[in-house]
Design goal:
Blueprint: E1 3-6, E2 12-16, H1 18-39, H2 49-60, H3 69-84, E3 88-90
Parallel strand pairs: 1-3
Antiparallel strand pairs: 1-2
Helix pairs in contact: 1-2, 1-3, 2-3
């Protein structure tokens, strides 16, 4: 069962299952693109802007303009919101949360 477990403050703590891990991966890519758009800091030496944009295109199916990092991040955030509906949300003690 794919699920995301949240702490008492509403922060995600645990992503279990392939769909939940994919959501985390997409959210991390969106954050990395926002970081690069604002500061030109790469999240890692090996992660290039071209790699991030090509992965955003692959995940969303949208062809972004060159260097439209913020637009790609916004599209990925929408994708995260859509995909979060497909997994179960659990509270701090593992109880199902109403979403």
């Amino acid at each position: 069962m794919d699920s995301i477990q949240f702490d008492a403050n509403g922060n995600a703590q645990c992503f279990s299952g392939a769909k939940a891990v994919e959501i985390y991966r997409i959210a991390t890519l969106a954050a990395a693109l926002r970081l690069y758009a604002k500061t030109k800091i790469k999240p890692s030496r090996h992660v290039t802007p071209v790699m991030m944009m090509s992965e955003a295109r692959r995940l969303t199916g949208i062809r972004f303009k060159w260097r439209d990092y913020a637009g790609a991040a916004d599209a990925l955030s929408k994708l995260v919101t859509e995909k979060k509906q497909m997994v179960q949300h659990l509270g701090p003690e593992g109880e199902p949360l109403l979403t």
